[in-house]
Amino acid sequence: MDVLLGKTLTELQEVAVSVGLQKFAGKQLAQWLYVQRVTSIDEMTNISLKGREALKANYTVGRHAPVREAVSVDGTRKYLFAVGEQFVESVYIPEEDRATLCVSTQAGCKMGCKFCMTGTLGFHGHLSAADILNQIFYFDDLSNIVFMGEGEPMDNIDNVLRSLEIMTAEYGCAWSPKRITVSTVGIPAMKRFLEESECHLAVSMHNPFVSERAQIMPAEKMMSITQVVDLIKQYDWSHQRRVSFEYICWAGQNDTPRHAKEIKRLLRGLNCRINLIRFHEGVEEIKPSSNTQIFKPSDEKQMEWFRDYLTENGITTTIRRSRGEDILAACGMLVNSLQ
Prior knowledge:
- This protein has two domains: 2-60, DNA polymerase, domain 1 (Orthogonal Bundle); 78-327, TIM Barrel.
- Helix content is 29%, strand content 19%.
- The chain has ten helices and 14 strands.
């Protein structure tokens, strides 16, 4: 049975006509799905009973609740969603004046970053736009969304762009794109995102040197960090749209003055910010098995030096506060541990 969630206005109009309704009923369907956020076709009360029965014969809304939840000591919550025969995790991060949701775009990940626990899952499939939106629609108090969960969003670009359209379109949720950030390790499909969306971009850098980055991030061989930055520099970041670079700090490996100076050179002339991230070592049994390097977190003093050096040289740099580490919900730790 086909799913209504994740369909664009044009597609919903086609659905309406296909079951004997007028074309304008497509807009009613969008209202029920994306504004009212119904979970069943029976709730669509301004559509005739006959129309609802015709819809139910071929379609379902496509909403379902998570199957498990874990709560961190810091208030972060992690949720496990079933996606067909697979599972994915989402992380809800409450703060005093806002709530951010970190959503997954794939079951597992194929990028194989050697420091990332999520990579140990392997790749088990793309999430549909319905699967992505279902994670978001479970919550009604979100102020921000980050596409930073399982998977590489740009590797599932069609479904990511579709979900972004629905979240930001007038017929959909009418969110400002400035409330949404999409991450990438940097692959060619990023160009489509830059052209077809106005949402913020976050690039996982982790090392500014091409040869060193290639040792820990296989995607570097597909598109080097130099090429990634050169592409980004072709776009306008002087207004409300932002680009940021994520940078996990490892002691002696990428937190040295040599790395800081190369970041300054690489990003010269680009209006951006850097988020420094503490490395989460995780638990022994699910550390990346293929990893021959020993990753150790930078100490606080070195991270502060790194931050201050970059900031003093014109690149706004912050140290991101870790959330949810005790429930394996922090950066790079999503391994469907709630299964």
